[in-house]
Amino acid sequence: MKLKNILIVVKDIEKSKQFYYDLFGLTPILDNDGNMILTEGLVLQEESIWKNFIEKEIIPQNNSCELYFEERDIEAFVQKLEELYPTVTYVNKLMEHSWGQKVVRFYDPDGNLIEVGTPV
Known about the structure:
The protein is α/β, with parallel strands linked by helices. The protein folds into 2 domains: 58 residues, 2,3-Dihydroxybiphenyl 1,2-Dioxygenase, domain 1; 60 residues, 2,3-Dihydroxybiphenyl 1,2-Dioxygenase, domain 1 (Roll). The chain is built from 3 helices and 8 strands; from the N terminus they run E-H-E-E-E-H-E-H-E-E-E. A 4-stranded mixed sheet has the order 1-4-3-2. It has a 4-stranded mixed sheet with strand order 5-8-7-6, with helices on one face. Strand 6 and strand 7 form a beta hairpin. This is Glyoxalase.
């Protein structure tokens, strides 16, 4: 068995598609009307469809998981993030862990937690 995709719930699939393209270069592979697969295996699922499937409320910023990306030039990434999305909500701004890895954590427009770190 192998893991194929990671699905996140979004309110506006077009807005989220643009966000993940702008910051990470992810592009659509398949668009199934409310369910979009992007490169690298990220799936965007419209909230209304997901709520219908699970019959439960969606809790943004629940901090129970995160999407993790690596970037060598993290300072340039943070500059791009701040230029393109100046109102982004940070969990922590750019910091350096005791083991030397630099990371930044923030929420996407729908409250999905994202971490970008330098390669370990």
